[in-house]
Amino acid sequence: MLKGSEATLMPASVGLTFRFMTSAPVRVPVAARLATARRYLMCPPRFFTVEYSINPWMDPSRPVSTEGALAEWSALKETYELLGHKVETIEPQPGLPDMVFAANSGTVVDGLVLGARFRAPQRAAEADFYRTWFLDHGYRDVVMPEKTNEAEGDFTWTGDVLLAGTGFRTDPGAHAEAQEVLGVPVVSLRLVDPRYYHLDVALFVLTEAGPGTRAHIAYYPEAFSPGTQRLLRRLYPDAILATAEDAACLGLNAVSDGQNVVIPREATNLIAAVKAHGYTPHLVDITELRKSGGGPKCCTMELRG
User: Fold this and answer.
1) Total tally of structural domains belonging to the chain
2) Is residue 12 assigned to a domain?
3) Residue 21 domain-assigned (yes or no)
4) Active site residue 198
């Protein structure tokens, strides 16, 4: 566990584990994983409900518990804090039930902020509340986009490149805009399954790239176009491949600090896989939040720099 804001080397088994990707086991060396302290922005779901449908997960006819969602969110926030991470919060606003999904409202790299422009009109007002939060908290390099982008919903920082999803929400032109604003290389990935309408429900980073090392990721191949699948195999040949069952419970909407992985409890195959690769899973309940198509990552914007 992290102490305060210091990064600590987390003990993990060093040896050999097995991945059953083929008929014969593949031997994979597992190194000790390093957790680094993170800073997150979250929004309590005090006004959470499902009163419209803008993705396949949302059904306004199903009962939803605001109290249950708040309990899930509180447990998630406490998990981060127990792991030594700093959590900032923004005040929720009435009439914006999806404001809890903070990841959709900003992408922060090296202290530079690219805001969001939502595709669905029901969420459009969220972007300015987050813009105001950044300005009130000392951020001066805040750019609001011209193109539609749903921030960390479709932008995933790997430590050396920004993986950028498109196909359902974020405009392809927003990828070039992100590169210009954030000053980092961008790799476009095409999503093809409407259930996985954002990149952050189809892929997450386990360990960021470092000097001489590439990022380690997990993803669900069938969420992506054939060409994107080939690209991901080329870029990340050692990735963990999630099953359909993992994806269907939003198991890939997970958050990793390089050693600890906060993950929906139903993603049993993925949990076993990340554990076999030397990570420590921390299971959370997202029963209510999932009714709006969100999970741990959707609730968590990372403030980098």
Assistant:
1) 1
2) no
3) no
4) yes
Q: Strands 86-89 and 106-109: what pairing?
A: unpaired
Residue type, 116: A
Give the H/E segment covering residue 173: helix 173-182
Q: Is residue 100 part of a domain?
A: yes
Mark whether 299 is an active-site residue.
no
Tokens of 49: 């409900």
Cβ–Cβ < 8 Å for 283, 72: no
Question: Which residues neighbour 35 within 8 Å (Cβ) at sequence distance 6 or greater?
Answer: 2, 7, 8, 9, 10, 83, 84, 257, 258, 259, 260
Report the alpha-carbon distance of residue 289 to residue 210 in Å, rounded.
Answer: 33
Please report which confidence band the pLDDT of residue 256 belongs to, taking 50, 70 and 90 as the band edges.
very high
Q: Is 300 exposed, middle or buried (0-12, 13-18, 19+ CB in 10 A)?
A: buried
Mean pLDDT of the chain: 92
Per-residue pLDDT band at 1 (split at 50, 70, 90)? very low
Domain span at 140: 36-302
pLDDT tens, residue by residue, 85-129: 999 999 999 999 999 999 999 999 999 999 999 999 999 999 999
Q: Which among 85, 198, 216, 282 is annotated as catalytic?
A: 198
pTM: 0.90
Do the domain assignments include residue 203? Answer: yes
pLDDT over 50 at 7, yes or no: no
Q: What is the pLDDT of residues 266-295, one digit of tens each?
A: 999 999 999 999 999 999 999 999 999 999
From 43, 175, 249, 298, the catalytic residue: 298
Q: What is the CATH number of the domain that holds 128?
A: 3.75.10.10
CA-closest candidate to residue 8, choices 45, 33, 25 = 33
